[in-house]
Amino acid sequence: xxxxxxxxxxxxxxxxxxxxxxxxxxxxxxxxxxxxxxxxxxxxxxxxxxxxxxxxxxxxxxxxxxxxxxxxxxxxxxxxxxxxxxxxxxxxxxxxxxxxxxxxxxxxxxxxxxxxxxxxxxxxxxxxxxxxxxxxxxxxxxxxxxxxxxxxxxxxxxxxxxxxxxxxxxxxxxxxxxxxxxxxxxxxxxxxxxxxxxxxxxxxxxxxxxxxxxxxxxxxxxxxxxxxxxxxx
Length: 233
Ligand SMILES: *Cc1c(COP(=O)(O)O)cnc(C)c1O
Fold this sequence. Notes:
Blueprint: H1 3-28, E1 36-40, H2 46-54, E2 59-62, H3 65-74, E3 81-84, H4 90-99, E4 102-106, H5 112-119, E5 124-129, H6 148-157, E6 161-167, H7 176-193, E7 199-201, H8 208-213, E8 218-221, H9 223-226
Parallel strand pairs: 1-2, 1-8, 2-3, 3-4, 4-5, 5-6, 6-7
The structure holds pyridoxal-5'-phosphate.
Residues 40, 42, 63, 85-86, 169, 204-206, 220-224 line the site of pyridoxal-5'-phosphate.
């Protein structure tokens, strides 16, 4: 596909997603500028990131360290904010904090020291990923709601990390509206303790409306902008 055709495709996807966000905000009685669109560019090339930046995208999300490191380096001239949204290994955390402006997937205390070390000289925004799965569910990512308090204290005490809020993914197979209602309740008690950590990263291509209704401040949207991801890479 030519660059012009791809640009058209991305412009169209972006326009639709921005309209969905605006509509969801209107339905929820919220101002559209309360919600930041993070375009998730995982599996897509740096050339797409360049086109997106040209189309006015300011925030991009990646979920795999090596790919994110390479792409953020290739696109360093664009002035984008890079959000790391994927599962994080503690031995990669310092490297991730070297290029990420925000890390959404902090779900255990073991990640805090390496992130802080890797961020040195800058400030990295941190969101705590909270699990909305039932306790004991297999393959769940995210901290138990009951563990957020202690984790938040660790992050808040780190010199180069800024505690910003919470992140969650709606469990597969559950109505996202119900999952995000639980998230809103968890967030509400979290805010009692950390009133400045008001970011809520929730909502993807298929459930951004429900997330905005539940108070999301950051939606992470991939396929609705870029098309379906290549299955193998
Ligand atoms: C891939 C991914 C997204 C984007 O998913 P889409 O369904 O393509 O919008 C959002 N959040 C996380 C954590 C992801 O890994």
